Amino acid sequence: MISIEGLSKRYGDLTVVDDVSFEVESRTIAVVVGTSGSGKSTLLRMINRLVEPSAGRVLIDGQDVAAEPPHLLRRRIGYAIQGHGLFPHRTVAQNIATVPRLLGWPEQRIGARVAELLELLQLDPGAFAGKYPHQLSGGQQQRVGVARALAGDPKVLLMDEPFGALDPIIRAKAQDELLAIQRRLGITVVLVTHDMDEAFKLGARVAVMSQGRLLQFDRPATLLTRPEDPFVARMTGISDRALKLLSLTSARDAAVADDGPGLGDAPQVAATASLREVLSELVWRGATRATVVDERGQACGSLAIADILAHGRAR
Amino acid sequence: MAAPRRLDLAGLRRLDPLGTMLVLAGLVAARLPFVIDKANRIVPGDPRPLFEVVPWTAACGCALALLVAGVAALAVRAPGARLAVAVLALAALAFALGAAGDALTPAGNRVVRIAPGAAFWVLAALLGVLAADALARLAPGPAARVLALLLTVLSTGIALASGHFDHVSVMREYAVNADRFTHEAWRHVALAFGSLGAAMVVALPVGLVCHRMPRLRAAVIAALNVVQTVPAIALFGILMAPLGALAAALPAAAHLGVAGIGAAPALLALFLYALLPIVANTVAGLAGVSPAAVEAARGMGMTRGQILAGVEFVLALPVILSGVRIALVQNLGLVTVAALIGAGGFGTFVFQGIGQAAIDLVLLGAIPTVALAFGCAVLLDASIEAMQRGRA
Ligand SMILES: Nc1ncnc2c1ncn2[C@@H]1O[C@H](COP(=O)(O)OP(=O)(O)OP(=O)(O)O)[C@@H](O)[C@H]1O
Ligand SMILES: [Mg+2]
Q1: What is the pLDDT of residues B288-332, one digit of tens each?
Q2: ipTM rounded to 2 decimals
Q3: Residue B218 counted as domain residue
Q4: Which of A208, B120, B202, B296 lies 20 to 30 angstroms, CA to CA, from B233?
Q5: Do B391 and A148 touch (CB under 8 A)?
Q6: Which of B108, B139, B170 is the last residue of a domain?
Q7: B365 and B220 share a domain?
Q8: Beta carbons of A57 and A115 less than 8 angstroms apart
Q9: How many domains are there within chain B?
Q10: Does B386 contact chain A (CB < 8 Å)?
Q11: A205 Cα–ligand 2 center, Å
Q12: pLDDT at B340 over 70
């Protein structure tokens, strides 16, 4: 668990982060959103002490981060940034091996770890280990950046706009990969972005910041249905908030068990699709009911258009 | 008959433009005197054409090689072939010069001077351009360039050692000054590299500090720029007084070799001149390091020293080395001037030659200086490029 307690940062008269407190549960993703200059990066960088706070403290699993020399602290916290920051003079394998080398792992363990991470991020070790960063595409560079951040087997991963430089399709893929990796490794992630859709997609909880202050820290659905500040409502988007809400629920979670026949020609939708996607499909087909099928193609329930609309209603 | 004629016209239009210019210039140059036959080192001497001074077989061989080079310059595309004929023609030209020296020097005469004439110099320069152009088109990698340099040095050494050129004026001057030549060569190298080494020891940390403190940077660079604008002779002169006074006041300093003239002011001046290129390039190199890479290095828990040595310095190294290259080439040239204040080096021959109006003696100092600077530049450029391979 990461506890941020009354954290502030001042540069002269300028208060960049103003008395921010929240807690990130272990093994979850917390996303910090806000407009440019709202202090997101500064907040994130105080967690691994790239910035020293003016007031307040950060605890990781009850341990004050200030109790440890900063460089040793940072070796057990993953850190990935926009534009990846890969070392141009080192190969992919050498880049990923940075923290294990700093930790003094034996060579054999480092080699195994590099191969494991390349596999995890779906980069063929044989093809990529010896390449230099400039020989990779933007998406591949970003994946190597994440692999490098994970190399020291950290419990906590900090990410500052890690997908900011990617095009929408690659970005969506990278987000899915991050979710899968986070679940698989059971790590705690704090991610900074200014993209609200990204925040809702990735964050179990989302912190909305403005001018250094934390306005609200809640589940995405709560931010939509019960914004505590007009700015939060503006950030989350008023005009399409119902649709945003629908996109937070999957077809699997909303499906109701079939109680009879009569679904003959209802369109089929994947269990992993969001209700927003199911609704779009129904409108497109002119249907009023869809069959939800799982990965193996087995029907696991159905969704009527009225049920879907109920999920998007203000609460 | 019509078909071949059209072919010829098409061929004419495809003539290499650079080659055409070189050949035209070469045709003019060939009419100039090939060697100057001087009764002694100072008198003006008689201009002599190639066919008068060399056995006709050698003259024909040389002419043929030049002809082939001319045709290749006009009509051959392949840069490898162009390079080969240019190098062969240069060798033939040099061989003819040596042969002329042998033919024109009466047996046992040590006073006569057979100097290369205008035709030799111009043709050699034109062939040099042809070879350089071919090399540029070949774009050899760093290893190939170093190899080519080694081969050139080796073959030149063998040619000079063979005795074939012993009767050419510059080599006659060398024979007279052989002992001093070796001594001055070492002195030249020691002055240039010694001042460079000292400058690197100071300039790298200064560059680093300037990089970290932008306010200091402007002041330091401005001061070094002022030093750079002081003419070399003036700087040597300016340093004579304080160093002389220092030696007079401190016997210990005088004992260490500090004096108003000689090596001390030369080393100090060359050191000062070398500072600007190295400091400026260190600052530029460090400024060019990707901030994201440094931020990531910090975020992963590298210490300041590890970041400096393993990331910043390594990434800045190619730019820093180009500063070192500039400083070295500049120093190798400036050492020549330092001979004026008694520091020694190849400049000794240059100034002595000027004083005696003996051009061959001037060349004995100038040619090795240029060759040394050129060779060092090739080596440093090759290592910079080798370093940059693999990266973006
Ligand atoms: N070292 C510093 N000295 C002075 N001011 C700073 C410093 N670092 C950040 N700031 C200021 O703090 C404010 C917040 O910066 P921060 O980088 O945390 O914003 P951000 O929310 O991450 O913005 P963005 O979305 O553009 O990355 C900005 O106004 C910035 O100018
Ligand atoms: Mg930021």
Answers
A1: 999 999 999 999 999 999 999 999 999 999 999 999 999 999 999
A2: 0.86
A3: yes
A4: B202
A5: no
A6: B139
A7: yes
A8: no
A9: 2
A10: no
A11: 19
A12: yes
CA atoms in the 13 A half-sphere facing the CB of B314: 13
Range of the domain at B78: 15-139
Residue B77 domain-assigned (yes or no): yes
Q: Residue B203: which of B286, B310, B293, B266 has the closest Cα?
A: B286
Write out residues with Cβ below 6 Å of ligand 1. A 11, 16, 34, 36-42, 194
Query: What integer is the mean pLDDT of B182-210?
Result: 95
pLDDT digits (tens, 9 = 90+) for B345-359: 999 999 999 998 888
Q: Which ligand is nearest to the CA of A37?
A: 1
| pLDDT tens string B234-270 | 888 888 888 888 888 888 877 777 777 778 888 999 9
**B214 lies in the same domain as B335:** yes
The minimum CA-CA distance between A162 and chain B, rounded to whole Å, is 12
Q: Closest-CA residue in chain B for A49?
A: B299
Cα B168 to Cα B35, B38, B123, B346: the distances in Å are: 10, 11, 17, 19
Chain B residue with minimal CA distance to A100? Answer: B300
Of B74, B108, B139, the residue at which a domain comes to its end is B139
User: CB atoms < 10 A from the CB of A28, how many?
Assistant: 17
Q: At what angle do helices B313-338 and B263-287 cross, to 10 degrees?
A: 150
As a three-state string, the secondary structure of chain B is CHHHHHHHHHHHHCCCHHHHHHHHHHHHHCCCCCEEEECCCCCCCEEECHHHHCCHHHHHHHHHHHHHHHHHHHHCCCHHHHHHHHHHHHHHHHHHHHHHHHHHCCCCCCCCEEEECHHHHHHHHHHHHHHHHHHHHHCCCHHHHHHHHHHHHHHHHHHHHCCCCCCEHHHHHHHHHHHHHHHHHHHHHHHHHHHHHHHHHHHHHHHHHHHHCHHHHHHHHHHHHHHHHCCHHHHHHHHHHHHHHHHHHCHHHHHCCCCCCCHHHHHHHHHHHHHHHHHHHHHHHHHCCCHHHHHHHHHCCCCHHHHHHHHHHHHHHHHHHHHHHHHHHHHHHHHHHHHHHCCCCCHHHHHHHHHCCCHHHHHHHHHHHHHHHHHHHHHHHHHHHHHHCCCC
- CA–centroid distance, residue B291 to ligand 2 (Å): 14
Distance between Cα A107 and ligand 1 center (Å):
39
